[in-house]
Automatic annotation (TrEMBL):
Catalyzes the transfer of a formyl group from 10-formyltetrahydrofolate to 5-phospho-ribosyl-glycinamide (GAR), producing 5-phospho-ribosyl-N-formylglycinamide (FGAR) and tetrahydrofolate. Pathway: Purine metabolism; IMP biosynthesis via de novo pathway; N(2)-formyl-N(1)-(5-phospho-D-ribosyl)glycinamide from N(1)-(5-phospho-D-ribosyl)glycinamide (10-formyl THF route): step 1/1. This is Phosphoribosylglycinamide formyltransferase. GO terms for biological process: 'de novo' IMP biosynthetic process. Belongs to the GART family. Its EC number is 2.1.2.2. The keyword Nucleotide-binding does not apply. The active site is at H108. The record marks D148 as: Raises pKa of active site His. It is an enzyme of class 2 (transferase). (6R)-10-formyltetrahydrofolate binds at K64, N106. The gene is purN.
Amino acid sequence: MRVAILASGNGTNFEALTKQFQAGEIPGIEALMFCNHPNAPVIKRAERLSVPYETFSVKECGGKDAYEKRLLKVLQDYQIDFIVLSGYLRVVGPTILNEYPNSIINLHPALLPKYPGLNSIERAFDDYKKGKIKETGVTVHFIDAHLDHGPIIAQQAVPIYPDDTVDTLEARVHETEHKLFPATLRKVLSQRMEKEEN
């Protein structure tokens, strides 16, 4: 099973996943990292970890449709079977969704369906300060055509403490992501590979 990780930013979750792929703790082959921001720090991480990568932006392609078609061609060229969205800040369009049904998972820093979209941790923290919630969390889910939507595979709550700041909460959310995401991916890929063997 050949896996691509799509990322847009810093790449801490990409690095956590890559180290587990390279240690043989996650089954399959991490064949590609794709980034839609050519200057993002995740590219340096891919270089340092010796992961093949490709990068181009929507703007370079002249629009969303051309971008998706070019990305699909890259995925096909690398013979990708499964896609992991790890801080990929774009909605995946029908060109790729249709080619990879039930084969794209996303990590989101909130307990979906709460706080979809950007700034989830900040929005949860604001609601905590207003007395609306006591915890936030992390979700791993298969994606569909809607933003941060689709069948949930795993969730883990992260409590919010009275002395928390957005930064301390964000650090704990990321710590939880770095544990939940690899464990969930390991399970999903193992089940997928088992099914294909039978």
